[in-house]
Design a protein that fits this description.
Strand order of the largest sheet: 9-8-7-6-5-3-12-11-10
Helix content: under 10%
Distance between the termini: 37 Å
Oligomer: single chain
Order of helices and strands: EEEEEEEEEEEEEE
Number of strands: 14
Structural class: mainly beta
Largest sheet: 9 strands, antiparallel
Strand content: 35-45%
Shape: globular
Radius of gyration: 16 Å
Length: 214
């Protein structure tokens, strides 16, 4: 089956533990990692992502209503003519605990629920689509917990970052310029550089990266 779930990630979304075999994966990649957080404030960062610095309650909002773009690489390769970190995948949160996973190439890929707590985040993806066909009976559960091999935290810009065994897997970057009520990822196909191979080769992406605005 063609790529439905991200590396992320990206998002490969994207990466956590699947309900089928408890092995961490998202688009063939493990996920998560992080930083200990302290304090009581929830702060808005320059990227628009929510940075949680601790709460007395077990529940907290790492993600709020909005559109989050999957960042699949920790650093931009400035030698390239495009931004290799973004490949056209998005998590659209209609509220703090549910939303949809989108690809600019294939459109809507899945619905998800998201359980958010101070030390854990779990995604439950259901109703997997492919190229707009009718839903098929797939479900993937992805779990991340602080202090485990599949960890998460925030980067210096406040984006939630997922790592696996200390390796960056993907981050979710909030896009304040996009409205979750009207968002359709396929409207933004022109923002990305198409791969020569598309889905013809296993593991290849539809897009190399995002076009750099001058």
């Amino acid at each position: 089956m063609k790529k439905l779930i991200l590396s992320a990630l990206a998002l490969t979304l994207l990466c956590g533990c699947t309900s089928q075999n408890n092995s961490p994966s998202r688009n063939g990649n493990d996920t998560a990692a992080a930083a200990e957080t302290t304090g009581t404030a929830v702060q808005k960062t320059a990227t628009g992502a929510k940075s949680v610095s601790g709460k007395d309650s077990a529940e907290c909002a790492w993600f709020t209503r909005g559109v989050y773009e999957v960042m699949e690489s920790e650093e931009q390769n400035t030698a390239l003519s495009y931004d290799n970190r973004f490949k056209g995948e998005f998590y659209v949160f209609t509220d703090e605990d549910k939303g949809e996973y989108w690809s600019a190439y294939n459109g809507k890929l899945a619905s998800f629920r998201c359980d958010q707590e101070k030390n854990s985040i779990a995604f439950h993806e259901t109703n997997i689509w492919e190229h707009g066909s009718r839903p098929i009976g797939s479900r993937v559960d992805m779990s991340y917990s602080k202090g485990t091999d599949h960890d998460f935290g925030t980067d210096e810009d406040g984006n939630v970052v997922f790592r696996s065994y200390g390796r960056f897997m993907f981050a979710l970057v909030k896009r304040d310029d996009l409205d979750p009520d009207t968002f359709d990822a396929t409207d933004y196909k022109g923002d990305f550089v198409l791969s020569e191979h598309g889905w013809l080769e296993k593991g290849s992406y539809a897009y190399k990266g995002k076009k750099v605005k001058e």
